[in-house]
Design a protein that fits this description.
This protein is an alpha/beta fold and about 325 residues long. It contains eleven helices and 14 strands. The protein has a six-stranded parallel beta sheet, with helices on both faces. The structure holds 1,4,5,6-tetrahydronicotinamide adenine dinucleotide.
């Protein structure tokens, strides 16, 4: 029996998610959007490529939650993206309303789904989604860290002229300007990057520039596109999480997960390394942080808390 994957939001990321899932044959796809025509048109277009790419899954476009019932995985991109000059936080008001609608739509129809939230501002929206939907905290997760880590690794590979496969690193904390690139645990071909700095093989200043470029990675693409935000790398990141769940791969991935005391944080979602398997978020992995990393991580947590307080001002029921 093929798995059922529902994509709430059939826009730039939603359509790309559907295409990637089809090519990987991860399961049948239901593309849901309030703009039903977009959902139906993209589902039909991707389906028409199946004889070429030889995938065998069903694709359905709809604006009816009944068509999404009993989904195994739900990936949510419903919401508005940034325009040039906007911050992710500027999207809070409108996307909070949208995520409440989505939570009401999925709560009854897919109570056992693994729900991956992508909509920005990510850390607060995924927290609101879990509270509005009442779904288990280990089955509601946010996608951001994989994207931020991928951008960081790509920039490092370009600078050091090393294949991306040879670079190990990740980014933690909130999905915003306070995200924490974990330089201390970054390895280039098995060697600590800070040792390469000591050996004069790479300049600290250059690393700092790469960390900054990663923090504004989203804004850089928003500015270049002029209309909309990144969608290929975000979609690839969402599929990485869905696949680890569907195939019980138990990958350790940086995601926005519910913290219940880990990293000294309680009752908050933030980007941390987690193990994703068939039970959802199976473990929050507590890695050793240097003093500087601890300080930066705390700043990031504080920024998420501040934005969540802003969300509670908009909707006191949170
Ligand atoms: O790393 C990350 N998490 C971010 C997330 C990376 C990139 C983009 N990020 C955010 O994802 C972005 O700021 C947006 O909040 C979402 C979706 O971005 P996308 O580029 O896919 O936006 P689109 O193309 O505007 O698609 C959004 C779709 C659009 O088709 C709307 O009609 C639909 O959402 N929409 C809804 N669907 C269902 N239900 C409701 N209520 C609804 N409202 C709008």
């Amino acid at each position: 029996m093929r798995k059922k994957i529902t994509l709430i939001g059939a826009g730039q990321i939603g359509g790309t998610l559907a295409h990637l899932i089809a090519l990987k044959e991860l399961g049948d796809v239901v593309l849901f959007d309030v703009a039903a025509g977009i959902a139906k048109g993209k589902a039909l277009d991707i389906a028409q490529s199946s004889p070429i790419n030889k995938f065998n899954i069903n694709l359905l476009g709809t604006d009816n939650y009944e068509d999404t019932k009993n989904s195994d995985v739900i990936i949510i991109t419903a919401g508005v993206p940034r325009k040039p000059g906007m911050t992710r936080d500027d999207l809070l008001g409108i996307n909070l309303k949208i995520i409440k609608q989505v939570a009401n739509g999925i709560r009854k129809t897919s109570p056992n789904a693994f729900v991956i939230c992508i909509t920005n501002p990510l850390d607060v929206i995924v927290m609101a989604l879990q509270k509005y939907s009442g779904l288990p905290k280990n089955k509601v997760i946010g996608m951001a860290g994989i994207l931020d880590s991928s951008r960081f690794i790509y920039f490092l590979s370009q600078e050091l002229k090393v294949p991306v496969q040879k670079i190990k690193s990740f980014v933690l904390g909130g999905h915003g300007d306070t995200m924490v690139a974990m330089l201390e645990s970054t390895e280039i071909d098995g060697k600590k990057i800070l040792d390469l700095v000591k050996e004069g093989k790479v300049k600290q200043q250059k690393l700092n520039e790469i960390v900054d470029r990663t923090k504004s990675g989203g804004a850089e693409i928003v500015k270049l596109l002029g209309n909309g935000s990144a969608f290929y790398a975000p979609a690839a990141s969402g599929v990485e999480m869905a696949e680890s769940y569907l195939k019980d791969l138990k990958k350790q991935l940086p995601c926005a997960a519910y913290l219940n005391g880990e990293y000294g944080t309680k009752d908050l979602y933030a980007g941390v390394p987690v193990i994703i398997g068939s039970s959802g978020v199976e473990k929050v992995v507590e890695i050793k942080l240097s003093n500087q990393e601890k300080e930066n991580f705390k700043k990031s947590i504080d920024a998420v808390k501040e934005l969540f307080n802003a969300a509670k001002k908009i909707d006191p029921s949170l």
